[in-house]
Amino acid sequence: MTATAPITLDNITVPRKLETEAKTNLIGLQRDALKAVFANIGIADKQLNMRVNQVWGWMYQKGALTFSEMTNLSKEFRATLTDNCHITRPKIITKQISTDGTRKYLLRIAGGHEVEVVYIPEANRGTLCISSQIGCTLTCPFCHTGTQKLVRNLTAGEIVSQILVARDDLEEWDKPAGDKRSISNIVLMGMGEPLYNTDNVRDAMLIAMDNEGISLSRRRITLSTSGVVPEIIRAGTEIGCMLAISFHATTDEVRDKLVPINRKHKIAELLQACRDYPRLSNSERITFEYVMLKDVNDSDADAHRLVKLIAGIPAKINLIPFNPWPGSPYIRSDWERIEAFADIVNEAGYASPIRTPRGEDIMAACGQLKSATERKRKSAKQIAQDAGL
Ligand code: SAH
Ligand code: SF4
Question: In a designed cystine with 38, which of 43, 129, 192, 271 is the match (CB 3.0 to 4.6 A)?
Fold first, then answer.
């Protein structure tokens, strides 16, 4: 075996490092990959499971920032870990707190890129909105993130680190699972399309759900997709989380414009994937997100079409008043219009909550995220043109 040949353990491959290469960051590795790393640094086979469990608990249950805190590990093992590995989290560059308590963190990750994470406190619970990519390859014209071109997928470690950093800031390590926690729910509704980064999102969520660690129930994790149909079922079988669909239009003609992935995967195909989404019970409803854009998708006829389309799917409709951003080519629907739309959906038997915009004053609301370093914004004219207006 050459110095750079990968080593394998239980079919898990980890790259063998050259002396000069950086130490391995353990955050984001599955247990099997951790085992392979530990075997590689000389831990005996019969100790591997125990060592992995110990380090896992320190990282994800206690939120340890260094190996030296891991006091139930032998001095030698801690030294070996320090020599070969690290557990560094991304740094918080800025933290903004909205007048409504919403917190927006800007994190610096490898390569000097920036990721936005939003914490939304509510009565007796709180939701952390995390990102899956830097930027987005899709170009939904009402979305600020869509004006930023994709820089790269986030790694599993960078995705799960968003939770770790928020827990640090909210001082909630070692708290029992459940509603008392500040972060009771996770939504993959930040920057990026999670189902264009399914493997890393899955690995990060498996860590978040692990009972020996962050221990979030799969029912408290919601993944939002614009409609990457071939990956939807995989999200259900491999993660098992709740599903949200950025629906936003009731005809292919309008959806082709608002959610351009619709040109590839039409509404009928998307709804079939929703019907096939594996759910353990009927109480697990699919959320249909619907951004309210004045005179574009907000008529009574749209509301009637919507309920017809989703007939038979256990669903709730989340109406999102459009959140404007500099240069955005749309206007938020009037409040009366949103309520009239909600009433029609509601009368058809679907819950239709209107999402209160949170953190607008710090540009933390849905669709407003975009990292400053990549801010090569198109002109307002260009955005309007691209949107076909
Ligand atoms: N890319 C995924 C995850 C992002 S979720 C997706 O599109 O589903 C962010 C949610 O906010 C999506 O439903 C998105 O369509 C919506 N959104 C984007 N821009 C918005 C805006 N300006 N106002 C309100 N909602 C917006
Ligand atoms: Fe990407 Fe989602 Fe924004 Fe569309 S709405 S551009 S898919 S982040």
Answer: 43
Tell how far the Cα of 246 is from the centroid of ligand 1, in angstroms: 7
CA 78 to ligand 2 center in whole angstroms: 43
Catalytic residue among 114, 116, 360, 374, which? Answer: 116
Mean pLDDT of the chain: 89
Is residue 8 domain-resident?
no
Centre of ligand 2 to C-alpha 258, Å, is 10
33 and 162 within one domain: no
**pLDDT > 90? residue 378:** no
Does residue 116 carry a catalytic annotation? yes
- Percentage of the chain lying above the pLDDT 90 cut: 75
In a shared domain, residues 120 and 64: no
Domains: count for the chain: 2
Q: What is the pLDDT of residues 26-58, one digit of tens each?
A: 999 999 999 999 999 999 999 999 999 999 999
Q: For residues 185 and 267, state if they share a domain.
A: yes
Mutate to test the pocket of ligand 1, among 116, 143, 187, 325 (most ligand atoms within 8 A of CB): 143
Q: How many Cβ atoms from other residues are within 10 Å of residue 20's Cβ?
A: 5
Q: Is the pLDDT of residue 222 over 70?
A: yes
The model's pTM: 0.90
Whether 271 maps to a domain, the answer reads: yes
Nearest CA to ligand 1 atom 24: 322
Question: Is 151 in the same domain as 74?
Answer: no
